[in-house]
Design brief:
This protein is of the alpha/beta class and 470 residues long. It is built from 14 helices and 15 strands. The strands form 4 sheets. It has a 5-stranded mixed sheet, with helices on both faces. A 4-stranded mixed sheet has the order 2-1-3-4. Helix 9 packs across helix 11. It is globular and about 75 Å long. The termini are far apart.
Length: 470
Amino acid sequence: MNTESAVPLVEPRVRPALDPGFRPAVLATRAFAALVEASGGGVPVRIALEQADGSVFHYRTAVLPASHASAAANERYLERLVKFLLWARGGWRIYVDGPGPLAAALASHYTESHAGRFDADFVGVSIFDHPLEVVSTRDLPAERSVTRPLGRHLDGCRIGFDLGGSDRKAAAVIDGRVVFSDETVWDPYHKPDPQYHYDGIMDSLKKAAAHLPRLDAIGGSAAGVYVNNRVKAGSLFRGVPKDVFDRRVRDLFLDVRKAWGGVPLEVVNDGEVTALAGSMSLGANAILGIALGTSTAAGYVTSEGNITSWLNELAFVPIDYDPAAPVDEWSGDYGVGSQYFSQQCVARLMEPAGIDAPRDMPYPERLKVVQSLMADGDTRARRIYQTIGTYLGYGVAHFAAFYDLRHVLVLGRVTSGPGGDDIVSGARHVLEIEFPDLAGQIAFHVPDEHDKRHGQAIAAASLPELPQKP
């Protein structure tokens, strides 16, 4: 066990083939909890996150007494925990019922560190339209939240689309049956003019609409946060200046709906559609969908088959507690999901695997190189997938502390081909070795080729509900 970072760093029993320095968040938090228990139970801490609509989510934990020899671990432990809650649950006001100095240190983190300011600006201001606040108090607001059904409407002639960082997909669907599908490569991340995004979306919709006798509804998924079809934040629009974003991007999908005669249209986060597609395909709930694409997308369907107002932005939650872990180039933080469950991860692992690639080669092209080598039985490529599988196993074990999980659906471009099987088998192996209680509780699923091609499109197309006929 290494305590140089204050929070205990525990070497995993299953070591990633290409990352010997990996120190899983789940093992660090469990080791910290053991220290707290050994100290006599520690000091209780209650946390509440409040969203703009009044939803409030609670979380309970405990920290070490101030007199404990390892009490310096408290600040980092609380900051990493709250970061997970902030990106998984979401909120603009954080209530802390615990030691005052810890609440003060947390508040300082969000104003004085680069990573903290990114979180505060993105989650608080961009998503919830409020400056992020940390409130030290013994009186937490009552917990309250609302879940709602999502999609599952298959009647009529519909278009389903999915906007990713490297490609966009669209499908024509008639009464739940895909009659046309199309995939187009694009590069939206760093385009400063949103006309590029609008034109691309319209092009895909027109291709799909040409295969329908009429258009009743449009449903779509995209990376980012969407409220009432308005863009609150999205990685697809990272290159758009803020003033242009406010003026032209926020209502982009409202403009799309207007261009199609005002038909019912609904756009949600791609992770939610991933989870919905899994729930529809498996006929199961309590499911977390994780898409390993250009970045990481995730969504969650409750045990009742509904969605929540949670963010589920697992691209930014801490996975690795080693301070020397890879740094996310957007948020500036280390050890977060985007570096472990994505094309970025594949690209990062090519060098330690001994696979050469030009430094300016885009991530999708690097992935193609690795997939081609994997198809030829190259052991270097296989070690990349095995490493990602180990990451995923420890990541899912960590997620299980925050989600009621029975099923994990794993998909995305990184999982295409034989490497996807190594990722899932590697994750299962981690649970069997380190977390046998979870191994018997959580089932992993990989969509078959039909569901990979059509499941997401059908789920997206099913989002809008058609008006009832008089």
